[in-house]
């Protein structure tokens, strides 16, 4: 019998397992997939660390979390500065003076602010009620139309006025010439990939791959005293209140016989008529100099059973449904829910680590 059955070998499960194993607890980690590391999984192809489930760039302002991950990997000094392509126009992201200067042929913050104010003067937006109003209020009509609307509607499969405002507030808005996509104090990519971090975190636990939770628990109901569940909370409860919505992503990955395909790790395609949202060129996360390159086109899709869930769709309807599952979870004090799917939150990696450390801390008391 184990102290903890940890369902999901992703970041939440791995950090929790590490913390508990370090305190002498017996942990069994299972995963449906045949590899560890969940969606941060990276795999070496042509000497390049490929982010198999989408680009993961570590960034945080939480010093403890930064010091924690640095115990398991050395991070390089990569700074994310995506480029956005709209038709034959090219802009820097996030929205900053480089973007505005290119968009309007201006130079000063005052000019940019004046143009934005003019573009939204007649809209009368008060407290933004949705992503569209939030975006217009922040950056005006031109930037919204060219760099936000098409990308967001492809990414989420819903009109911007039906999406929550917080999603667009993930991106910094600056009236300085600064293309750093994040405002966080610390940022980088783990040299050697993310899978190696998960391996180290899981070193003190038993790991069984290709194992389905429901099947295991049917066979061995007494396998552990407590369960940590990082899968979909609605699935755990048999979708008893109905299914939560998620977005999935399909990747078209190819190795190309060229050294440098797009000159940047992340290029977003913000027009609605391009079917993918972005192209990732993995080698640039590690300043790679290999003779070949590997690129991934990302196609966003609504999640359905059998696909991989990536993003919770945190609109009012789903949040209300999630609250019902959360209430239901209180009837299962033997289960700790964690991660993006267990907590139905659009967590970044640092927040996942923080939540896992807190959950482990609460267990120890
Ligand atoms: N976004 C956008 N245009 C872009 C990039 C992002 O409108 O070129 C919006 C879009 O709504 C997206 C959100 O900003 O869902 C958050 O972007 P982020 O890069 O944080 O998304 P992730 O990398 O988590 O998919």
Which helices and strands, and how do they pair?
Elements: E1 2-7, H1 11-22, E2 27-31, E3 42-45, E4 48-51, E5 58-60, H2 63-70, E6 83-86, E7 89-92, H3 97-104, H4 109-120, H5 131-156, E8 186-188, H6 195-201, E9 206-209, H7 213-219, E10 224-229, H8 233-236, E11 246-256, E12 266-269, E13 278-281, E14 293-302, E15 311-312, H9 316-329, E16 335-337, H10 339-342, H11 349-364
Parallel strand pairs: 1-2, 1-10, 2-9, 6-12, 10-16
Antiparallel strand pairs: 3-4, 5-8, 6-7, 11-14, 11-15, 12-13, 13-14
Supply database-style keywords.
365 residues; 5-stranded parallel beta sheet; 32% helix; binds uridine-5'-diphosphate
What does it look like?
With 365 residues, the chain is of the alpha/beta class. It folds into 2 domains: 2-78 and 186-244 and 312-364, NAD(P)-binding Rossmann-like Domain (Rossmann fold, 3-Layer(aba) Sandwich), CATH 3.40.50.720; 96-167, no CATH class. The chain is 32% helix and 21% strand. It contains 11 helices and 16 strands. It has helices at residues 11-22, 63-70, 97-104, 109-120, 131-156, 195-201, 213-219, 233-236, 316-329, 339-342, 349-364; strands at 2-7, 27-31, 42-45, 48-51, 58-60, 83-86, 89-92, 186-188, 206-209, 224-229, 246-256, 266-269, 278-281, 293-302, 311-312, 335-337. The strands form 4 sheets. The chain has a 7-stranded mixed β-sheet. Strands 9-2-1-10-16 form a 5-stranded parallel β-sheet, with helices on one face. Strands 3-4 form a two-stranded antiparallel ribbon. Helix 1 (11-22) packs parallel to helix 6, helix 1 runs parallel beside helix 11 (349-364) and helix 4 packs across helix 5 (131-156). The longest helix has 26 residues, at 131-156. The model has no long low-confidence stretch (mean pLDDT 97). Residues 84, 93, 147-148, 151-152, 155, 167-168, 170-171, 268, 270 line the site of uridine-5'-diphosphate.
């Amino acid at each position: 019998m184990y102290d903890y059955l940890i369902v999901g070998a992703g970041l939440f499960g791995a950090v929790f397992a590490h913390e508990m194993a370090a305190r002498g607890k017996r942990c069994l980690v299972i995963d449906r997939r045949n590899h560890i590391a969940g969606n941060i999984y990276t795999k070496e192809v042509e000497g390049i660390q490929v982010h198999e489930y989408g680009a993961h760039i570590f960034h945080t302002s939480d010093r403890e979390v930064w010091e924690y991950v640095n115990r398991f990997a050395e991070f390089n000094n990569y700074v994310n500065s995506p480029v956005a392509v709209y038709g034959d126009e090219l802009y820097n992201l996030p929205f900053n003076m480089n973007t505005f200067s290119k968009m309007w042929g201006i130079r000063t913050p005052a000019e940019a602010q004046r143009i934005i104010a003019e573009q939204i003067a007649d809209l009368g937006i008060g407290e933004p009620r949705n992503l569209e109003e939030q975006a217009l209020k922040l950056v005006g009509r031109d930037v919204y139309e060219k760099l936000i609307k098409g990308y967001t509607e492809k990414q989420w499969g819903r009109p911007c006025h039906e999406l929550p405002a917080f999603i667009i507030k993930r991106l910094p808005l600056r009236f300085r010439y600064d293309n750093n996509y994040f405002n966080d104090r610390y940022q980088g990519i783990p040299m050697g990939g993310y899978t190696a971090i998960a391996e180290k975190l899981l070193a003190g636990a038993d790991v069984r791959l290709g194992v389905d939770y429901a099947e295991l628990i049917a066979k061995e109901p007494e396998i552990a005293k407590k369960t940590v569940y990082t899968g979909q909370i609605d699935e755990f409860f048999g979708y008893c209140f109905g299914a939560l919505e998620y977005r999935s992503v399909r990747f078209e990955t190819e190795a190309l016989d060229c050294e440098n395909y797009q000159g940047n790790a992340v290029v977003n395609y913000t027009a609605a008529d391009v079917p993918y949202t972005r192209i990732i060129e993995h080698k640039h996360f590690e300043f790679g100099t290999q003779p070949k390159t590997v690129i991934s086109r990302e196609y966003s899709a609504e999640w359905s059973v059998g696909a991989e869930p990536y993003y919770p769709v945190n609109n009012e309807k789903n949040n209300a449904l999630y609250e019902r599952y959360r209430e239901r979870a209180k009837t299962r004090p033997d289960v700790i829910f964690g991660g993006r799917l267990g907590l139905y939150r659009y967590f970044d990696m640092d927040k996942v680590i923080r939540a896992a450390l807190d959950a482990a801390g609460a267990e120890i008391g």
